[in-house]
Structure formats: C-alpha cells, structure tokens
C-alpha cells in the first residue's frame, strides 16, 4: 500500500460533501462581505496617495479572524468526523490493515489541508473582490496600486498558526462527543468568551485558544497589551500558545482514538 | 487447523454485567460456521472482540494461526468482515466505496467490477447508496468484505432485513465462497436459515457456548429429540398406553410423545388403535435447529 493511499481514501470520502465546499464558501463569503461593505461606503478607501489594498486587506482580515475563522474550523472538524459517524464507519475502518493512528493523522492532514485551502481561497477572493470594486469605483485606485500579496500572505500564515489550537481541540471534541452539536456549542461559546477576553484585555487571554485568532492578527481592532513576540520577532505569544494547544490536544486525541473500544 | 481459535474469552461492559463468560470456540478452516444465539447472547461482542474492536479482558484469540494480540495489522488483509448493517457513506456510490477500500487494502481497482458483478450490483454501481434498498446495501457490504479476496470472512447477521429473495442470493454467494476454500463465520438469529448452509454450528447463550460441533452431530442430537403430537378422543387412556415413551398432555384432546426415530411411529399408532382409542390426527412436530436451539438454551436455564 502506498504511503499516501489512506490519504487518497480520506479524500474520496469528501466527494460531494459540504465539508469540501466549505472553504470555497468561506472565501466567497469573505469576498462578498468586504465588497458589499465598501460598495455602500467606500469613502475610507478613496484617500489620495494611500494604497487602498492596505485598508481593504486589513478589514477583510479583521472580519475573517474575528468572526469567521473559528466557526469555520468548528464546522470543518465536526464535519470530517461526522462523515464517519453518520455512516457508522468506525467499526469498519478499524478492521482495515492499517493502524488507527494512520487513520487519525490522515484525517488531521486533510483538516490542515482544507484549512490551507480556505486561507488561499480567502486571499484570492479578497483580491478578486477588490478588483471588482475597483471596476465600479475607479477612484479607489485598485488598478493603480499592486495588491500587497506579501502582506496578506504573511497574515494568512500567522492566522493559520493562531487557529491551530482551536483545530486540535475541536478535532478531539468531535471524536469524543457523539452528538455533533456539543462541539459546535462549545466552539460558539468559546468564540464569544474569546471575544470578551481579548476585548477586555484580561491577562490570561493569551492562554485561551479561542482568543488567539482574534488577537494574533487583529489589524488594530483590539490592541491587546498581552501580545508579545517570541522567536526572533516573528511568532507572537498567542501563536506560540496556539501551537502548544494544538500539539497537546492532538496527542490526547491520538491516545484516546487508539485506545477506545468501538462498541 | 482452525481459522479462529478462542480460548477462555471474557468480556464485560461493566462490573455488573458479563457479556462473554469464559468462552472457547474453534472455527475450522474451510468451514461455514454458524454462530447462533438469541439477541443479547453475546454474538456481536464476540465478533467485535475477534476483530480487535473491543479488547479481550481475559483469554486469547488466534486468527489464521496468529495470536491477535501479537499480530500486525496486515492480518486484516486476510480477513473480510461485515458487522451488522454495513457501513455506507450515503453520498458515495458503490464504485466509490470500493475505490476507497482498494486504497485501504492496497488492492488494484481492477477488482472492483468483478466484485460488484459477483454480488449483482454492477448495474447499480453509479447509484448513490442512499437510494439503495436494504438488500442492495447488504450486498454492497458483502462486496466490501470480499474486495481483497480474504481467506476468512466474518459476517455478523448478513441477512438481517432481507426479503426471501435477498436471503437466497446471499446464501448462494456464501456457498460459492466456501467452494473456493474460504472460511466463513456466520452469525444469525435466523436459525432455520443457517441450517441450510453451515457445516459447523456453535450455539451461544449468556456468553457461553452451549453446543459446538458439526451440523451432522447436531442433527444426530436432534433426531434423538423428535416429538409427535396425537389428537385423540381419550387423552388419559392414550397417555397410559404410551407410558413407555416420554410424553406429556398438551390439552384436553392432545398428547405429545417423544420418539428416538421415525420408525417408532407406526408401532406407536398401532398400540393406541389396538386399545380402541380413536385417533383424529398425528403430527410430526417441527424439530429443526430452531427447536433444538430452544431446547438447549431452555435446558441451561432449568
């Protein structure tokens, strides 16, 4: 069996499922949000000698980090696990000639891939929607300035790291709870709490995984005083704790999944 | 040589309820082993433990001459299974199901069409499984168990929910598989159905095996426990005449008599008629595997 065979099998399962269309939906939704917001009120973009892409990306990124990234990851992790649960497929999957660990990590890789796909689609949709806006409002000068690809790519990498803690945690929760609504409820509650913790700038918000995507790249919306850089001024402490959450929850999930009895 | 050898297996979900109680059984290679038991007897728990889905708390399991505890995952390349209702992804069709299994099992996708043809699903291969009937789903489950051409097939209630035609089709496939030299462990509570195809039988009750042996040995046991029922005008008198046979009164005009062979029936009737007792009806009671199963499990309860 090829080393990638089980990944291919996981990919086949996603055919025609909402999980596969979720990243595309997220990207289009983001592009549409930012476009409609500026279509109604574009004055803030029409500033002489100011690159409109900077403001446009900043607002798009802010909405993406604060309002959409957590629900997206919660739905994605829940959806991937729900595909198996609905088919009652664990009893069958775990009689295959490969270890439970390989199945567990194949799903995790698919999750990470779909999150990366969503990030890239978000970037593309933001760029397309900006050009579209520029077509209606040439005074914004989107066609005059080049898009700040490097800036948004940097943002995407950091927001990706900042959401990994939530992804690891929700992968574990989705495997543990049979009812798909429980992880979803926990995710929404976590998001609201994260919003308040970051907004109130409480000291412990750096340890709260749902706060990380909001605070790590907030485009000046929260101005968290807890944020500090570690590792050569590249990684923020929010991202570092998100990575720790990810590693710990993935390990717990692995131990749980490889030991549980399939009743 | 046994394809499955279980020794002193114990499993319980909680301290209060033991599901498998020191269970030992052996499924000979090349056999169709009928695994019988009422609902809740522990058949599915046994099968899930054999497949490693549940961990044996005591005892040992050998699959294809390898101790399950020490076996690598590659042992499952030699085993196909269908546990109760098949695990189907409603959004995928039959070909896609077998494609993903081909990836897991490391077999060529060229085996997909012949496997679907074997279970009669080739014409429905592109239909989503959400549109399948129960019988079609069960046949696809069987195809999924067969795709990698396993030596040992473990089928838990494979004819559950099937109509008589569906049962006949599955039976034909199972018999063909035995002709190819495969070993099949077949659990069911449709006892009369198993009697038609199995070569060996194990009867499970409350997590313990009440009987294990060939179908022939079971039939021999069965023949020693045949009953006939006589409807007569004088039950009391008939019972006295037939006192040299084990008997019991069924109701005011019927008596049930146990015989060891059908050859005893004419003589028995002659005895009653010679005593001037009128006989209105003589009925050989159905005594198939199902009746024997009930007898065996009742004996244990008593």
Topology diagram in text:
The complex is a heterodimer of chains A (263) and B (302).
Chain A: H1 5-13, H2 18-40, H3 52-86, H4 90-93, H5 100-136, H6 149-176, H7 181-200, H8 212-216, E1 229-230, E2 235-236, H9 237-259
Antiparallel strand pairs in A: 1-2
Chain B: E1 2-12, E2 18-28, E3 32-37, H1 43-50, E4 58-63, E5 66-67, E6 79-83, H2 94-105, H3 112-118, H4 134-146, E7 152-156, H5 164-179, E8 183-188, H6 191-197, E9 200-205, E10 208-214, H7 215-223, E11 226-232, H8 235-241, E12 247-251, E13 254-259, H9 264-274, E14 279-284, H10 289-301
Parallel strand pairs in B: 3-8, 3-9, 6-7, 7-8
Antiparallel strand pairs in B: 1-2, 1-4, 4-5, 9-10, 11-13, 11-14, 12-13
Arrangement of strands in the largest sheet of chain A:
1-2
Task: Give me the side-by-side strand order of the main sheet of chain B.
Answer: 6-7-8-3-9-10
* Rg of chain A, Å, rounded: 20 Å
Number of helices of chain A: 9
Integer average pLDDT of chain A: 89
Shape of chain A: globular
Terminal-residue CA separation of chain B: 35 Å
Count of DSSP E strands of chain A? 2
CATH top level class name of the largest domain in chain B: Alpha Beta
In the CATH scheme, what's the topology name of the largest domain in chain B? Rossmann fold
CATH superfamily of the largest domain in chain B: P-loop containing nucleotide triphosphate hydrolases
Architecture per CATH nomenclature, i.e. the level-2 architecture of the largest domain in chain B:
3-Layer(aba) Sandwich
Poorly predicted runs of 5 or more residues of chain A: none
What string, H for helix and E for strand, traces the elements of chain B in order?
Answer: EEEHEEEHHHEHEHEEHEHEEHEH
């Amino acid at each position: 069996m090829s080393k990638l065979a089980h990944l291919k099998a996981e990919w086949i399962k996603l055919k025609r499922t909402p999980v596969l269309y979720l990243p595309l939906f997220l990207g289009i939704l983001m592009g549409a949000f930012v476009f409609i917001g500026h279509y109604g009120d574009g004055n803030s973009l029409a500033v002489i000698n100011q690159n409109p892409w900077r403001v446009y990306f900043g607002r798009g990124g802010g909405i993406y980090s604060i309002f959409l990234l957590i629900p997206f990851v919660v739905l994605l992790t829940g959806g991937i696990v729900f595909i198996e649960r609905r088919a009652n497929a664990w009893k069958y999957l775990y009689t295959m000639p490969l270890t439970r660990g390989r199945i567990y990590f194949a799903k995790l890789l698919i999750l990470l891939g779909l999150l990366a796909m969503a990030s890239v689609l978000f970037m593309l949709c933001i760029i397309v929607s900006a050009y579209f806006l520029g077509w209606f409002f040439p005074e914004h000068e989107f066609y005059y300035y080049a898009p700040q690809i490097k800036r948004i790519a940097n943002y995407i990498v950091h927001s990706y790291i900042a959401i990994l803690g939530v992804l690891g945690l929700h992968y574990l929760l989705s495997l543990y709870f049979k009812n798909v609504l429980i992880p979803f409820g926990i995710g929404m509650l976590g998001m609201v709490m994260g919003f308040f913790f970051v907004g109130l700038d409480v000291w412990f918000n750096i340890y709260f995984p749902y706060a990380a995507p909001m605070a790590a790249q907030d485009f000046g919306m929260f101005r968290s005083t807890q944020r500090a850089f570690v590792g050569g001024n590249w990684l923020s402490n929010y991202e570092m704790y998100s990575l720790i959450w990810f590693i710990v929850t993935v390990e717990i999930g692995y131990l749980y999944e490889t030991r549980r009895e399939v009743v | 040589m046994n394809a499955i050898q279980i020794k002193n297996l114990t499993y319980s979900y909680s301290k209060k309820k033991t599901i498998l109680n020191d269970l030992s059984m052996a499924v000979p290679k090349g056999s169709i082993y009928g695994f019988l038991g009422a609902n809740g007897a522990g058949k599915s728990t046994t099968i899930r433990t054999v497949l490693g889905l549940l961990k044996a708390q005591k005892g040992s399991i050998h699959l294809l001459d390898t101790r399950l505890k020490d076996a690598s995952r590659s042992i499952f390349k030699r085993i196909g299974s269908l546990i109760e209702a098949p695990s189907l992804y409603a959004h995928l069709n039959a070909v896609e199901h077998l494609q993903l299994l081909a990836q897991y099992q490391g077999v060529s996708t060229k085996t997909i069409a012949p496997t679907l043809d074997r279970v009669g699903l080739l014409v429905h291969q592109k239909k989503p499984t959400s549109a399948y009937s129960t019988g079609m789903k069960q046949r696809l489950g069987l195809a999924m168990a067969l795709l990698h051409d396993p030596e040992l097939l473990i089928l838990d209630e494979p004819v559950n929910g099937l109509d008589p035609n569906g049962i006949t089709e599955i039976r034909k496939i199972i018999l063909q598989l035995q002709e190819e030299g495969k070993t099949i462990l077949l659990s069911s509570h449709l006892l009369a159905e198993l009697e038609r195809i199995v070569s060996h039988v194990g009867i499970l009750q409350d997590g313990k095996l009440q009987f294990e042996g060939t179908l022939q040995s079971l039939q021999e046991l069965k023949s020693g426990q045949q009953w006939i029922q006589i409807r007569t005008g004088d039950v009391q008198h008939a019972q006295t005449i037939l006192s040299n046979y084990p008997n019991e009164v069924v109701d005011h005009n019927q008596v049930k008599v146990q015989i060891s062979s059908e050859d005893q029936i004419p003589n028995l009737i002659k005895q009653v008629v010679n005593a001037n007792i009128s006989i209105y009806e003589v009925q050989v009671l159905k005594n198939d595997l199902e009746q024997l199963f009930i007898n065996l499990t009742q004996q244990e309860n008593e």
